[in-house]
Design brief:
alpha/beta
Length: about 325
């Protein structure tokens, strides 16, 4: 394996110049830089990333924690962060927790052991105290879809309660009063917040909560299908369903159609997330917009600004306002 010294001799420059070209730590005349790069290529020299990270105290890598690898929500999250970091020549390391507290903590510890310069965490099971401790120990942490008061400047989140409130109120304003709800798993903090928003909207409009119209799903299409089927077979009367997320809504629409009914003619359906597929299914899904890809990109931009001192980066507010995207899956009864 050739050394920096051999590259410097081959290019006719100092070892310090070779180091500056590799690390990008200072300006080098373009002609000299190209000469060094040509020598590295000709000799087959590969920089030692570990040695570089020890020397600079930077690994140029960012850790990302997600719950799982499949599904359009997490795909958009990963893509948003990776694109921004890739353009800045930073690497991203991804680990998944699969909704398990022990695995989630192990995933964070793994990312830290890889000397990641910062962490972007979509943490669903870790307690606030653990995340606060990580931040206080000097780890630059950005939380996505979660707000902890003591870390508010490091959080990027949508008001899940407000979003579900808006979805439910949207149906009420269309004349619906018998409104079912397919919740996400209640161990997830965002699922609990969305369920609470549904209840708040009913209460404000003097509509009683009917627990027989509430089913807990799993935030997936199969859970939405089975939950909607359970509602349809219960004998309870309802004209609309608020779904905890868009994937749940896809399954619910399929179950309604398999039962010989139509959306929205017989039952209206509204989702939450505004995934790309929601504008492609038939009928197109009315939903709550959650810009997860843009939120992940914002997390990456904050890290470039605060950790890597990249200039001219504009950051946005931590809290994203929810709003309804009106399409075709809700019928007015007025």
């Amino acid at each position: 394996m050739p050394t920096i010294k051999e590259v410097s001799e081959h290019a006719g420059v100092s070892q310090a110049t070779v180091s500056r070209v590799m690390n990008g730590t200072a300006k080098v005349v373009e002609e000299t830089r190209q000469k060094v790069l040509a020598s590295m290529k000709e000799l087959g020299y590969r920089p030692n990333a570990h040695a570089q990270s020890l020397a600079s105290n930077r690994s140029n890598s960012v850790g990302l924690l997600i719950s799982e690898f499949d599904g359009p929500f997490y795909g958009a999250l990963m893509a948003g962060a990776e694109e921004v970091l890739r353009d800045a020549k930073k690497r991203i390391l991804i680990s998944a927790s699969h909704g398990d507290k022990k695995l989630e903590e192990e995933a964070v510890e793994f990312l830290l052991s890889c000397r990641c310069d910062a962490l972007i965490l979509h943490a669903e099971t870790l307690p606030d105290e653990y995340l606060i401790e990580q931040a206080n120990q000097g780890t630059h942490v950005i939380l996505i879809n979660r707000n902890i008061e003591q870390m508010e400047q490091q959080c990027l989140y949508i008001d899940n309660e407000q979003g579900a409130y808006l979805a439910t109120e949207y149906l009420i304003n269309k004349g619906h009063t018998d409104i079912a709800y397919i919740a996400g798993p209640q161990w997830k903090h965002d699922a609990r917040q969305r369920f609470w928003g549904y209840q708040q909207a009913l209460g404000k409009n003097n509509i009683g909560l009917k627990l027989n119209l509430v089913v807990e799903g799993n935030f997936r299409e199969n859970g939405g299908y089975q939950s909607a089927k359970k509602l349809l077979e219960s004998g309870e009367s309802f004209s609309a369903i608020v779904c905890g997320n868009d994937q749940t809504a896809y399954g619910a629409i399929s179950a309604i159609e398999d039962a010989g009914l139509k959306v929205p003619q017989d039952i209206s359906v509204i989702g939450f997330d505004d995934l790309p597929y929601s504008n492609l299914i038939k009928p197109k899904l009315t939903t709550v917009h959650f810009p997860i890809r843009q939120m992940a990109a914002e997390a990456a931009r904050r890290i470039l600004k605060d950790v890597y001192n990249v200039k001219n980066i504009e950051t946005q507010a931590s809290r994203v306002e929810a709003h309804i995207v009106e399409r075709e899956s809700v019928k007015s009864l007025l």
